[in-house]
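Board notes (copied after class):
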Amino acid sequence: MSASNSTAGKKKPLDIERTRERLVDLGLAHAAGALESALGDAVRDGTTAQAFLDTLLSAEADEREARRIGTSLRLSSLPTGLTLGNFDFAFQPSVERSRIDTLATSTWVRQNQTLLIQGPPGVGKTHLAVGLGVRAVEQGFSAQFYRFDELLTALKADAHVPPTRLRRKKYLSTALLIIDEVGFEPMDREEASLFFRLVTYRYGRGSILITTNKSVRDWTELLAGDEVLTAAILDRLLHNAHVINIKGRSYRLRDLDHALGEQRDRT
């Protein structure tokens, strides 16, 4: 056999560096990183060209989605570590898991509806709110988390901002606004008016999730004693709203009982 025939019979080694560079130039850095292993799997398994390309593009899409979710969660100010997956439904039987699973589809966010989670301190209201917020972000919605006192501070700081600039504020522009711990301190008239402005603007434009230790029948006291303003706010909040009432023991008191029990066992 001639040297030329011997050379022709050999497979030319794959030069993936040039392909990797082109992927990077096109902004497909994750696909570039997955190229070598995906190509190796394709050669070993005899994968079709279409299936190989789909694998490579899926790697890019999955990494971009993970990065989007991570960035969105950081910008949302949602507390970390609280998910629906680690919520103790067994400890709070008043919380229907099937109902939370329905809310976790985020259809209510898509439809600009309100979710009100009521209950005494420590029963898991914040945990559920954050878990639903995380799920909404995972499904492509923007979310913003505020403690109620933090929100009031922001509203008062922006009280005289022109409407055209106010619309760019996170508490107005986000798809889902989560307001935690409403009801611990009553509002004065200025704060109640600013809260009314917020609710009115978001009505029909974006979703609001509120956690509160107050029943809605006690909101007049919360809203500076103004019955007319309270009726106007609740009319907007409760239209097409979902309401969850949690009746149960406090997680914090449970944990305290466990800690005290362990301390007694050691003594």
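Comment from the instructor: Residues 13-75 form one domain. Confidence is low (pLDDT under 50) at residues 256-260.
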